[in-house]
């Protein structure tokens, strides 16, 4: 007989974003000297709470939000560790399925001496097997007041579709986080429901190919030194793929460029994508963030390009950072952006905050920093916002 359990909630009536996806135990192995094949290497091994959706949700929690997590864990060491950590944040565990047959998702990453992932093995099949449309549909009522739903592409295509249909019924915008090149292709059946998507360059190309049903989009092939390209030149290479995603129904495409920042592309300006006021949450840290951002860089610099009939592309730069480890940076960029959107900031302000949060993340060893400094985030976000450049705007009439 199955031991499947619906865990009792702590508190969730004031939940903000709904996050659906994987909670994963990451095992990080970092050598202290360059590794040699065929033998062990001195270094450190760490257990780190991970998973794209979990990282995003933890980041939001550290920024004062109350994300509502829908995920699945086993009754094993990894599952118990992840659940106890989640409880320590004071967040709801109602949406987290526990089952004796679940092997809690685990990913083992081996890093090089520069902090980059050299190799990795992922055992995450449980996310697809147990995060089913039936389980997700139990939380339909939670979406009714949610300002946004984030889904990660670890979900099976049927579960992605079910999640997006529930969000559409609740008039809740959807954020699609591609996770990897292979899984990013799962956009093909849900593009019409997606408001925000946050691929890197390779995921963007894979998503465009999946939506077109061919391998036509290969603009970066032969550009091995693409890191030397200016953001404007890189945008021109990626523009056909970006345009396809927008034509297929995605409202905002955020192309993450690592240390080069973010390309923000949409069919309208910053005012065309806004959370209804009655769904914004401006208490605690989020409220302070909103007030500080609105005071330091109010949403007026780009409004001249804000008509809904325009294709709008903007480059927001990264800020210099003292890099310790790069894992978690992209997830925290999404977490910072989502927290800002939920507080009522516009998309350009929100992405500026997201990049500032990502900067704070790469300066620590964990996937998510133990705490964030509001003053530092706002200072960095203002610098990013002030340095943003419009790359393209054109009437689509």
UniProtKB/TrEMBL annotation:
Residues 17-274 form the Carbohydrate kinase PfkB domain. InterPro entries: Carboh/pur_kinase_PfkB_CS, PfkB_dom, Ribo/fructo_kinase, Ribokinase-like. Keywords: Kinase, Metal-binding, Transferase. It comes from the Eukaryota. The keyword Metal-binding applies. Belongs to the carbohydrate kinase PfkB family. This is Carbohydrate kinase PfkB domain-containing protein. It comes from Stylosanthes scabra.
């Amino acid at each position: 007989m199955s031991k499947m359990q619906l865990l009792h909630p702590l508190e969730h009536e004031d939940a903000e974003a709904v996050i659906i996806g994987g909670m994963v135990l990451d095992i990080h192995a970092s050598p202290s000297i360059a590794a040699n094949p065929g033998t062990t290497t001195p270094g450190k091994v760490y257990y780190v709470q991970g998973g794209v959706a979990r990282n995003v949700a933890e980041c939001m929690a550290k920024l004062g939000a109350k994300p509502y997590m829908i995920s699945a864990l086993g009754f094993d060491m990894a599952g118990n560790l992840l659940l106890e950590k989640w409880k320590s944040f004071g967040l709801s565990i109602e949406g987290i399925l526990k089952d004796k047959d679940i092997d809690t998702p685990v990913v083992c990453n081996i890093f090089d001496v520069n902090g980059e992932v050299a190799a990795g093995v992922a055992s995450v099949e449980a996310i697809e097997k147990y995060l089913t449309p039936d389980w997700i549909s139990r939380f339909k009522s939670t979406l009714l007041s949610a300002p946004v739903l984030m889904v990660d592409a670890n979900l099976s295509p049927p579960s992605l579709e079910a999640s997006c249909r529930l969000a559409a019924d609740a008039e809740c915008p959807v954020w699609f986080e591609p996770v990897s090149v292979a899984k990013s292709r799962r956009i093909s059946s849900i593009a019409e429901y997606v408001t925000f998507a946050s691929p890197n360059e390779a995921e963007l190309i894979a998503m465009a190919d999946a939506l077109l049903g061919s391998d036509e989009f290969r603009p970066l092939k032969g550009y091995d030194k693409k890191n030397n390209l200016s953001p404007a030149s890189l945008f021109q290479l990626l523009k056909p793929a970006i345009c396809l995603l927008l034509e297929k129904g995605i409202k905002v495409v955020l192309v993450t460029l690592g240390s080069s920042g973010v390309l923000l592309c949409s069919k309208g300006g910053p005012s065309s994508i806004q959370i209804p006021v009655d769904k914004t949450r401006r208490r605690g840290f989020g409220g302070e963030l909103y007030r500080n951002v609105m005071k330091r860089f109010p949403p007026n610099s780009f409004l001249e390009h804000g008509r809904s009939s325009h294709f709008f592309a903007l480059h927001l730069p990264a800020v210099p950072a003292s890099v310790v480890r790069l894992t978690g940076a992209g997830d925290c960029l999404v977490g910072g952006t989502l927290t800002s959107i939920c507080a009522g900031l516009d998309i350009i302000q929100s992405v500026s905050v997201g990049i500032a949060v990502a900067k704070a993340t790469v300066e620590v060893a964990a996937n998510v920093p133990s705490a964030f400094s509001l003053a530092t985030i706002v200072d960095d976000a203002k610098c990013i916002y002030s340095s943003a450049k419009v790359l393209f705007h054109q009437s689509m009439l």
